[in-house]
Amino acid sequence: MSYIKGIDVLPQELLDLIQNYVDGEYIYIPRKECNRKFWGETTRSKRGTSIRNADIYKKYKEGVSTKVLSEMYYLSQKSIQKIIFEMKKVNE
């Protein structure tokens, strides 16, 4: 997320009004509910995580222990267990 200057996008009257509340400070203006995007929607993160989780589950089914998986993927054993549990639900 990058910052834009209020003076470049807001009418002067609105800028003056906002300065009555927040003068020279950063302010976050959230997206409208209808414009919100789900996590990973604009990047490849979600797809990458799904592929990783499927790989973890496949290796688990092949007999690789959660301890070894946690070392392979740099995740805690608890995280590996959660991934396996979720993948079991999806694949049943």
TrEMBL record:
> What superkingdom heads the lineage?
Bacteria
- InterPro entries from the xrefs? c-mor_Regulatory_Protein, Homeodomain-like_sf, YraL-like
Q: Which residues form a coiled coil?
A: none
NCBIfam families cross-referenced by the UniProt entry: CD3324_fam
Check the record and name the PANTHER family matching this protein: MU-LIKE PROPHAGE FLUMU PROTEIN C (PTHR37812)
User: Protein name, please?
Assistant: Mor transcription activator domain-containing protein
Q: What organism is the protein native to?
A: Anaerocolumna sedimenticola
